[in-house]
Design a protein that fits this description.
Helix content is 30%, strand content 30%. It is built from eight helices and 15 strands. Helix 1 packs across helix 2, helix 1 packs across helix 8 and helix 2 packs antiparallel against helix 7. Keywords: Membrane, Transmembrane, Transmembrane helix.
């Protein structure tokens, strides 16, 4: 099996159920921060957590979009319906959280057993078993087979077979193109941005007359929980529809170290965000802090559910020993970040792009594997970004560095 590219959130219902619960807490945490910013009675700001990061971002963001910040503290739209923020009730439950308590909302949600009832099935865990005698998780010995099992279990939106010069979508199954292992281990895996094309720029709103100054940034995470950040950078100022810009040299968006201790196969995921500079207000930096803030919560939740499913003692196994578990964590975080972006855009109505293809991902069966044909560079892939009538297409690829 060769390295395999995937795009979009997982469609596995176990993964989505976890993401929905986590997003519910994140949503209220952001709204709590907004209420504090707008001096809503009986609200306070915890010393740490999502609320504190959201408060710092929104305090800066209100300079460019005060009305959006005001809307967040009152009535907002989630999952296609309007929600009264004042009661601080988690969606799908009767649990009410206290906006004035010293504990952050994740701490309150755990204490109220909001995450109880979630589960990870044996299918989601890709055949993972627990050996009571050795007190070790039992995983498939063949790394190529195991990588295929993980891809099937997590059911990402799109999976690509790796063939020279092509990117063939494989629906509902892992790509299994044969490829002989290379003799030299790769040191790093890079996500490279190659070009960006303005299919349709902004321009319909009176505030959008003029050029599009497009900036980019985001995060990367691997199944060993190596979190890398892509600081915000300028791509290009687009002056007309249909304009294509070659990023020269190709931009290394994130780079992952492949030499760390831990089991193979490994998954690598990245969320790429675009924003029109004039309205950004620190949005990318906030998403990076959000990734940090929810990462520990998701690891704790996923590990507990997995250990319960296979009959192990919670905490008995390091995350790095179970490839599918680290990938599940990344899939949940990626989905939550996507939900947050979509929800904030629906409320803010601002020039920050949304992409249905986030996160972008790659699964490597082992450190010495190559892309099909022994290549160090994957085929080119395309990611779409849109907001309102505006639409951009980005070309990207993955590169192994030896």
């Amino acid at each position: 099996m060769t390295a395999t590219c995937f795009e979009g959130v997982s469609t596995n219902p176990d993964i989505l159920a976890m993401a929905d619960r986590v997003f519910g807490v994140v949503r209220l945490s952001i709204q709590r921060a907004t209420c504090v910013l707008n001096n809503v009675p009986a609200t306070s700001l915890p010393q740490k957590g999502v609320e504190k990061d959201a408060y710092d971002f929104l305090k800066s963001y209100q300079v460019v979009n005060r009305s959006a910040v005001t809307r967040l503290s009152g009535i907002s739209r989630t999952s296609g319906r309007r929600v009264d923020i004042g009661d601080a009730t988690l969606l799908g439950s009767s649990i009410k959280l206290n906006h004035g308590a010293p504990d952050n909302l994740f701490e309150q949600a755990r204490a109220n057993k909001y995450f109880d009832g979630l589960k990870l099935s044996s299918a989601t865990l890709a055949g993972l078993r627990w050996d009571a005698a050795s007190k070790k998780a039992v995983v498939t010995a063949d790394k190529s087979v195991q990588a295929s099992e993980i891809l099937n279990a997590l059911a990402f939106r799109r999976v690509f077979a790796d063939a020279p010069g092509t990117a063939t979508v494989v629906a509902g199954a892992a790509a299994t193109t044969a490829s002989a292992p290379a003799s030299v281990n790769a040191r790093e895996l890079h996500l490279k941005l190659k070009s960006l094309k303005a299919i349709r720029r902004f321009g319909w709103e009176i505030t959008d007359w003029g050029n599009d100054n497009i900036y980019c940034g985001g995060d990367g995470l691997d199944s060993l929980q190596q979190h890398v950040k892509a600081g915000q950078f300028a791509i290009h100022t687009f002056k007309r529809d249909g304009e294509s810009f070659d990023i020269r040299p190709d931009r290394t968006f994130v780079k992952f170290n492949l030499g760390g201790a831990g089991a193979w196969p490994r998954a690598y995921m990245a969320n790429v965000f675009l924003a029109e500079k004039d309205v950004d207000g620190g949005f990318v930096e906030f998403l990076q802090k959000l990734w940090d803030a929810i990462g520990a919560e998701v690891i704790k939740l996923a590990t507990s559910l997995a250990m319960s499913a296979i009959g192990a003692v919670v905490g008995a196994v390091a995350l790095s020993e179970i490839p599918v578990l680290g990938t599940i964590v990344g899939a949940v975080i990626g989905a939550v970040i996507g939900y947050v972006v979509g929800w904030l855009l629906d409320t803010a109505k601002d020039d920050i792009f949304e992409s249905p293809d986030n996160p972008l991902g790659m699964i490597l069966p082992s450190q010495n594997f190559r892309f099909n044909g022994g290549r160090l560079v994957s085929p080119d892939y395309t990611q779409e970004f849109s907001v309102g009538s505006a639409r951009y297409l980005m070309t990207y690829y993955w590169q192994l560095v030896v």
